[in-house]
Amino acid sequence: MPELAELHTIAHDLKNAKIINQKILDIKVHTTSIIRPVKEIDFINSLKNLNILDIFRKGKYLVIKFIDKYLIIHLKMTGHIFLKEKSYAIQKHEHIEFILKNNKLIYFDPRRFGRLYIVKNLDLFFKNIGPDALENNLPFEYFLKILKSKKLQIKALLLDQSILAGIGNIYADEILFNAKIHPETIANKISNNKIFDLYSSIEDVLKKAIINRGTTLGNSRSNFSSIYENKGQNQNHLMIFMQKICPICKKSVKKIKVAQRTSHFCQSCQKKRIK
Ligand SMILES: [Zn+2]
Question: Which of 116, 145, 179, 257 is found 20 to 30 A from 110 (Cα to Cα)?
Fold first, then answer.
């Protein structure tokens, strides 16, 4: 599932491709189940002939701004945005085409869990989404207060988008390994020093993933790729997620379920007791 670093890569590439200030000349909807509003004509009419004013990321969402509304894209498991030549003929699982002057944006999603929403009020849409894990300078005081107040397992807390937006399974494991914290540790039992390590690790891990242009875990077209269908490179730099040997102590990496997600950790480097 694309997380913060992958969405950052998509938003960054779209900006560099000079999509901002381009007009949506037409929209072709081939699958209506993924659009909101569901009625094709309403979806098309509300965006047709509007200029794209901005593109940014909020948590795991891509936001495209128009004069009086936003198109919010949630890629979920296998959603992708591709930038193609105007003459490009769509292929299987390519559900929506946004026609621009010289090219077009394609929404591709083999599993069809993704959603494209047209909304007027961004704050209302994101009312249950917490502050972004990387942008807006997440204050340490907020992070400390949240951790001290939660009896949740720390891995579950990092995955909870209502607390902190943008972190998914891959980067949660990487962040906890970097901070040397066991994924099942209860958040309010973690010492202030360790909380600071965790706070720094969020930034370190996510910035590294952004520099590496996201994580692509397999070769199929459903795995993450950029708008140009290039793979990310962060899979070559993962420390613990889907690894066999701990890069620090060389012991074998353990796998357990935490918050219903497979979690990778080193039982030697990430002890349960945190002091
Ligand atoms: Zn280790």
Answer: 257
pLDDT for res 274: 53
Task: Give residue 252 CA to ligand 1 midpoint distance, Å.
Answer: 8
Token pair recorded at residue 225:
């790729």
User: Domain spans of the chain?
Assistant: 4-125, 135-265
Tell me: domain 135-265, CATH 3.10.580.10, correct?
no
Gap from CA of 172 to ligand 1 centroid (Å): 17
The token pair that represents 208 in the structure block:
């590294």
* pTM (2 d.p.): 0.96
Q: What is the pLDDT of residues 135-159, one digit of tens each?
A: 877 899 999 999 999 999 999 999 9
* 275 pLDDT more than 70: no
Within 8 A by CB and 6+ apart from 231, the residues are 216, 223, 224, 225
Strands (DSSP E) found in the chain: 26-29, 35-36, 54-58, 61-65, 70-74, 80-85, 94-99, 103-108, 115-119, 254-258, 261-265
Ligand 1 center from residue 240 Cα (angstroms): 9
User: Which residues form the catalytic set?
Assistant: 2-3, 60, 261
User: Measured in angstroms, how far is the CA atom of residue 154 from the centroid of ligand 1?
Assistant: 19
